[in-house]
Amino acid sequence: MNDKDTEGEDHPLKNSEGKAVENNNDTGGEKDVCIKKQNRLSRLSKIRTAAFFGALFLCLAAVFAFSFIIPCPVRPFSQRTWSLQYNNSVGYPFLATEDVNKDNVQDVLFIFKTDSASQLNVSCADEGFQSPCFFLSALSGTNGSTLWVRPVSDDDVQLVECSIHNLGGGDSVGCLVIRKSGFILAIDSTTGHALWEKPTGFVAGFTVIKPVLKIPDVDRDGIEDLMVFIFAENELQSAVFSGKNGDRIGQKWTISTDQPSGYYTHVTKSKAYYVLFYKGSSIAAYSVSGLCSHTAGLEAKPTGQDSDWEAQMNSSTGFIPLMASSSSGNILYILNVPGRYYNNILVVKSEVSELLDGQKFQTLWSVNTTNILSKPALGFFKRDVLSIMMELETGMNRKKVIIVDSNSGALQWEYDLSLGIARQNPAVLNTGDHRSTFLFWGVNSPEPNNITELEENLFMFHPSHPKALLQLNNHTENIIMFRAALFERSRHACYVLITGPNTTEDPGTLMVSKRKLKEDISNAKVIWFGTEEVNTEAIRDEFFRMRYTSH
Asked: pTM here?
């Protein structure tokens, strides 16, 4: 046997290895290519891994920075209640809320008269006024601290109005004051500084018909202008002032010879603006376009008239009559009631109230409002269905609070209570369940003569419990102004009170206070007028947990 064959039998792997070596020698170039590809893939894998961990590191660094290094905006801490006292002062029937210091919390603007300036660090003499004089002041909604205070007049104030946008030009939001002496003053709400001050040119003895009407830019300076209605020389007149600098634009125009009780601005289906003056039982409507044309000049005439309304024009009088003078009762208020396609007009009279179609002037419904006590308030009794709250005197020092459906005038809720002494309008705050909380004043005494002297209670009602009322608190001071508002968006529902002597009384202690509703609800008395058993503590808790919305 051959030695090689013997060696192969004794060591069978030896020949294999030898052959393998020979084969490797034949494919060496292919092996190098594979190794290079593997090295390239390995490098790509390492790059992808490094990129992943790099991105993860950046994300973690960003989270760490926003969580610990970069401070989050601090939401101002709002006190649940605060109050300020002004000695030797009298109040004025004006109260507004506006975010003055831009901290996303509503602040309080009010006006009062005093000669005690030491506590204010400002005096009447700072503006050349004699003491006592009127001061316009802004208080922080969070803690009641004075943001600014400014003397505005040493004679009677004919008008004060705030939250006027672009007043003075730019992004300014301001207040407007018209003095009896015949000066018009614009004030920056943020700082309290004067934006401009101009003489009105009104004759002595004029009376301003409130409020100021904001009109389109008639002098073409990019800022909306202001129309003021006055009654002077036995005439109702209109005057236009520049919103940017207060200059008088055009000349006065005589609208009529009757002094109206007030006016209301209506927007028609075609988005045209009309002014509705009411007196007695009649309404006379004028287009804002026509008023601007007559007052500021034809060249400044803005567009906007409604063909349906203009078709009702009385050519001999020059206005559009909305109601016959023979209709029942004197008109006390006019309110805008949103309809399905356009606004309707609620005419509140001393005997009966009617909802007029805002485009066709037809009566949609009417309800008896004999001896109505206050201006109605609009809210939601049913979800997303507008309702109207009214207060009616029923005799024997009693009143009835009713809520009616705005679509039909049907009665939805009523409650009878003692009248009390406050004559404040009811207030409404919308809740997160698409309904509203209604607030009104009165005395819950079953006996007309069993009323504590000067006692006054604030009541809270929500449609989720139609047989329950919350008696929030009571006051013995004279209430000059009452206003409910959301001091922070969708939270912090509050009400503001100004109590003390008014301008017709001798000076005394004037109090301005803010109270959070939840603060009063936690100590409120639940009044249940149903026959079944009920857990009043559970009702109070439900009221306490309510969420509020600005929509």
From this structure: 0.83
